[in-house]
């Protein structure tokens, strides 16, 4: 019984030859069937290749999406932390009157700042600014009246001598 079952991948023309079919009309039909089978196999192979490419593109987009979501989550945390340091609404910073948290009244300074985040983010800026101001005052005080400062401006003490 197994001798009648052709092996997988046997074309209709090969099968006809194995069975001794020689009728030209039957062979023409079998030839067309073989051509159609070849076209279908090529189409399936092409679809499989395209499917693999599509899957790779999908996987890449999925990875990029996950990375962007993670980055977005990090940035939201940073914005919320800075809003806490400045006493602002973490959702809209007071710029959205339809905001469910502050109704547009949460600009920086609207709420008491969080002490720790204020110390972490704002105080270092204020300290640097104060240090620069002290350095600038000392430099200006050290100049002789009538001298130009480093920006090319006349020392204000020069007016006292005139």
Would you kindly provide a written description of the structure presented here, covering whatever features stand out?
There is one protein chain. With 162 residues, the protein is an all-alpha fold. It has 4 helices and no strands.
By secondary-structure content and strand pairing, the structural class works out as: mainly alpha
Task: Tell me the overall shape.
Answer: rod-shaped
The amount of beta strand, in percent, is under 5%
Please mark out the parts with pLDDT under 50 across 5 or more consecutive residues, or reply none.
158-162
Helix content: 55-70%
Instruction: Give the H and E element order.
Output: HHHH
- Taking all Cα atoms into account, the compactness measure Rg is 41 Å
Count of distinct strands: 0
Helix run count: 4
Terminus-to-terminus distance = 125 Å
Q: For the report, how would you describe the main beta sheet?
A: none
**How confident overall, as mean pLDDT?**
79
């Amino acid at each position: 019984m197994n001798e009648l079952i052709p092996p997988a991948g046997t074309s209709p023309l090969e099968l006809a030859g194995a069975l001794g079919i020689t009728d030209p009309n039957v062979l023409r039909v079998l030839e067309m069937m073989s051509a159609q089978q070849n076209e279908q196999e090529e189409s399936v192979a092409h679809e499989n290749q395209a499917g693999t490419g599509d899957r790779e593109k999908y996987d890449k987009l999925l990875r990029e999406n996950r990375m962007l979501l993670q980055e977005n989550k990090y940035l939201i945390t940073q914005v919320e932390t800075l809003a806490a340091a400045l006493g602002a609404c973490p959702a809209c910073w007071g710029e959205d009157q339809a905001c469910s948290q502050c109704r547009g009244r949460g600009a920086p300074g609207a709420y008491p700042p969080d002490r720790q985040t204020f110390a972490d983010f704002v105080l270092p800026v204020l300290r640097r600014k104060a240090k620069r101001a002290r350095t600038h005052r000392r430099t200006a005080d050290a100049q002789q009246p009538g001298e130009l400062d480093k920006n090319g401006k006349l020392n204000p003490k020069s007016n006292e001598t005139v």
